[in-house]
Amino acid sequence: MEGPSGDGSSASTALEKWKSDFTRKFQYYLDRSTPHPLGRWLGTIGVASIYLLRVYLIQGFYIITYGLGIYLLNLLIGFLSPIADPEIEGLDGASLPTKGSDEFKPFIRRLPEFKFWYSITKAICIAFAMTFFSVFDVPVFWPILLCYWIVLFFLTMKRQIMHMIKYKYIPFSLGKQKYTGKKAPANSTQSKY
Q1: Which PANTHER family does the record associate with it (predicted)?
Q2: What pTM did the predictor assign?
């Protein structure tokens, strides 16, 4: 039984304060990393390299790597898909333009770049932590998993590319678009002297 000093409540209050401070500081650094996509992605590539090196050196945890690959493929599809998918939502006015005369609507991703990066990095860190527990090291024949993942990747990407072609959108923009003005029609009545 707790005494009048309330040691149990002070311990829980201290834990809540630490959790709140940690969450606030973590969010502060996450917000500061937002305008630096190159640095964020290089860090994620570094973490992924360390994870792959660990899996290679241990010669195990292939089922964890396969699950990670499936999750990353799912994130990639969300990153490449528009927020208003014409196939799912029907053509009720909120669709992508399919003709040149349609109104321009910018491509808005279903999964924004920052959330895409954050989810990938978090998934790799969780998979890395799982490699320290032998209960997750299920013995499997890894070449079959690798072949199955490659087939799944190509079939999924083929479907996504066909969707992009059908609805005429490109999920990447290379710089700011510039207005070049109307092109003058070619005069066929000019004489060639």
Answers
A1: PROTEIN RER1 (PTHR10743:SF0)
A2: 0.74
Query: How far is Cα 27 from Cα 43, in angstroms, rounded to an integer?
Result: 17
Q: Are 114 and 42 in contact (CB under 8 A)?
A: no
**pLDDT tens sequence across 173-191:** 766 666 666 666 666 555 5
DSSP assignment of 126-140: HHHHHTT-GGG----
Q: Is 160 left (phi over 0), alpha (psi -120 to 50) or beta?
A: alpha
Q: Hey, what amino acid is at 27?
A: Q
Could you write out the DSSP letters of every residue in 4-63? TT-HHHHHHHHHHHHHHHHHHHHHHHHHHHTT-HHHHHHHHHHHHHHHHHHHHHHT--HH
Q: Which residues contact 91 (CB under 8 A, 6 or more apart)?
A: none
What digits encode the pLDDT tens for the residues 93-105?
Answer: 455 555 555 565 6
Q: Is 151 exposed, middle or buried (0-12, 13-18, 19+ CB in 10 A)?
A: exposed
CA distance 184 to 14: 73
